[in-house]
Amino acid sequence: MKSTGTNSRRQFIITCILAVVILVPSLWGFGTKFIEFIALFRSSSDGVFAISPIMNYLLAGLGFFCLLCWGMAQGMFTDVERPKYTMLQTEQRLDEAQQQHTPIANAPDHNLT
């Protein structure tokens, strides 16, 4: 049986490898396209249209960075397993509450006549 430290270290290594494999090509594509837009804007008078994509890239990147910082400040990355247990506990409570109360549609008919 493996210890928790070994599993944690392996998970960290796998996460780092996946981060590099995913983020490096994404950053490369984003960076080269951004540099192309800036070069186009500087090179010709018709390159003014490139201001819009440049601003979109900057604002979208800044927005995602702000969301990341907010999530880190709120502690959303400290215990990523908790939400699934909370969801299952809530579902169990709702199921128990539903079993205790008979819905009106399934209630027995009472003839008052």
UniProtKB/TrEMBL annotation:
Renumbered residue ranges of the record's region Disordered: 93-113
Q: Where are the transmembrane segments?
A: 12-30, 50-73
Top-level taxon in the UniProt lineage: Bacteria
Give yes or no: UniProt keyword Membrane. yes
Asked if Transmembrane is a keyword of the record, the answer is yes
Provide this UniProt record's keywords sorted from A to Z. Answer: Membrane, Transmembrane, Transmembrane helix
Q: What name has this protein been given in UniProt? A: Uncharacterized protein
Species for this entry: Symmachiella dynata
